[in-house]
Amino acid sequence: MREHDFPRAGRGNRRNRFDDDELTFEKSYAEEIEWDETPDKPEFGDRWSTWDLSTPTERGPAPHPDWLVTELAAVDVERGVLKTGKEADVFLLHRHIPGTQRGCLLAAKRYRSHDHRMFHRDAGYLEGRRVRESRVNRAMASRSSFGKEAIAGTWAAAEFGALVRLWEIAEQLNVAPFTPYPVQILGTEVLQEFIGAPDGTAAPRLAQVRADDAELADLWQQLVLGLTVLARAGYAHGDLSPYNILVHEGRLVIIDLPQIVDVVANPQGKRFLARDVHNVASWFTARGLTGLDEQALTAELLAEAGVR
Question: 106: exposed, middle or buried (C-beta count within 10 Å: 0-12, 13-18, 19+)?
Answer without folding.
Answer: buried
